[in-house]
Amino acid sequence: MERKTIYKLAGAIAALAVISVPALGMAGGKDLMYHLQNRGDLGPLNRSDIAYLQAEAPAPTSMDGTINASDWASTYPYIVTTWQDNNKNSYVTDYLEQDPYLTNIYEGYGFAKDYGSARGHEYTLTDVAKTQRPHPMANCLTCKTPNFAKLVNDQGVAVYKMDFNEVLGMMEENISCYTCHGNEPGNGGMLTVTHSYVRKALGDSMSSIDPANLACGQCHIEYYFTPEDKETMMPYHDVAGMSPEAILAYYDSFDFADWTQEATGTKMLKAQHPEFETVLQGKHAGLLNCADCHMPIEQAEDGTVYHSHLLASPLENETLLSTCVSCHGDTDMVNMVHRIQDRVTARETEIGNRLSELKDTLAAAVASGNFSEEELDAVRRLHREAQWFFDYDYVENSEGAHNSELAMSCLDTAEAKINEAMALLGRE
Ligand code: HEC
Ligand code: HEC
Ligand code: HEC
Ligand code: HEC
Prior knowledge:
Layout: E1 4-7, E2 16-19, H1 69-72, H2 77-84, H3 95-98, H4 101-105, H5 124-130, H6 146-155, H7 164-168, H8 177-181, H9 196-202, H10 211-216, E3 224-225, E4 232-233, H11 244-253, E5 259-260, E6 267-268, H12 275-280, H13 290-294, E7 297-299, E8 305-307, H14 318-328, H15 333-368, H16 373-394, H17 404-424
Antiparallel strand pairs: 1-2, 3-4, 5-6, 7-8
This protein binds heme C (4 copies).
């Protein structure tokens, strides 16, 4: 499979051609992706400065045959060290404390009990083990560890339904090399999709998506568990299907709900972190990938040039900030992004509180006995939709930075549906 992707760049930005190297095929028939060493210049250091090694894979020391980070340490000392540095990102915001309306709108669901912000990849197993949200099945491990992806690849989808604690005991590493590179990082750092549901959901349309977006898109996505197998799955088949409208239609098509809210009777959806979808519908789609903005290219004292595997905020990293200049010129990027985030966050608070009001009003209407089931169902429908649009924006971790237009349009749609629902209940 040989691929060629053309990036169309707006205005003054020159068009860059990215040509793949032929995929080499991996044990188990998984698709091998290409790296992007021929991509244009963004910062002081570029992919063309990286000496891509063709290194022999070390023997795995894990129990399941994944080659782990410490196995790669002598081949890629800087990459392994910066990968470990993800433990420096340990700060957690308690969203339920910050935004008290959440406890009400998520009533009856795990997120009403425990919902803190994400932190670095070095905490995934610790955090999943200690969350107060219930996790009856092993499918909660999907996005935490390469050992789970390997287990699915070896044993098939039946493992999603296994007992959480039983499988947790078999997990050896937090998100690691195998997650994004399989056992092949020796191959110049080739990227590969190891999470099988990505291939199932996206199929051929994977070839139109930048591999460094796909790598993160294995987890930083909206997903659901299939009703039969409890398999992790993405609710679309291509980029066009990633809009909040299209995903809602997908869920509606088989009457999917994450839970039914007790007080209102609404069949609710809970969105998860759709960073991948939001970026791919945004202004940088086709221009930049997740690595361009979150993995700075650094030079070690011995001259080695490499992608830092500490997944940083571009606002807090000088190397990343210096790459914005090539398109944004002398704009104060930190200020620009913060202004967007402040605007989006203020609007989230406004709409979140309105949703909470709608929930209370609907719950009171249900309890009053003054409305027919048909009337209530019409309101529940709007309630489900309003909360879906709110959540699609709220749970996206960039707070509008990835795509402010989409963030604002989600909140506008949510507001319109809340108003419609309130009117049906005789409130404004
Ligand atoms: C979360 C996904 C992810 C994980 C985990 C990960 N990598 Fe990477 N790796 C990437 C991405 C993305 C790139 C950059 C690809 C590009 O050029 O756009 C990359 C690049 C590389 C490269 C190419 C050289 C370079 O500096 O660009 C090597 C080698 C590499 N990784 C090795 C490793 C090793 C070893 C580990 C485990 C310690 C690891 N990676 C873990 C995503 C990951
Ligand atoms: C195997 C699943 C998986 C993959 C692949 C993955 N992530 Fe993550 N990521 C997570 C999880 C889970 C967390 C939250 C960890 C926690 O809080 O314990 C997280 C957290 C993060 C955070 C910290 C967020 C915060 O609020 O501090 C950043 C940044 C991040 N990921 C970026 C990336 C990028 C960029 C890529 C691709 C190069 C990537 N991730 C690939 C699962 C993944
Ligand atoms: C044009 C640059 C750009 C691209 C491309 C990009 N991001 Fe971001 N990302 C940002 C900015 C800016 C923020 C906000 C950082 C902050 O608030 O400090 C952010 C925030 C995040 C966060 C929250 C981190 C935190 O510390 O709060 C995650 C997770 C994330 N991005 C993942 C991704 C993933 C996954 C992709 C690819 C699908 C991606 N990003 C593509 C610029 C980018
Ligand atoms: C390859 C060119 C390019 C680079 C490099 C680039 N951007 Fe952009 N960025 C754009 C374009 C084009 C737009 C859309 C401008 C518009 O619509 O007016 C944009 C818009 C934005 C927006 C507004 C997005 C929105 O939806 O409101 C943010 C935030 C942003 N960029 C952040 C960054 C950051 C941070 C970096 C560096 C880490 C960066 N960009 C690097 C091309 C680039």
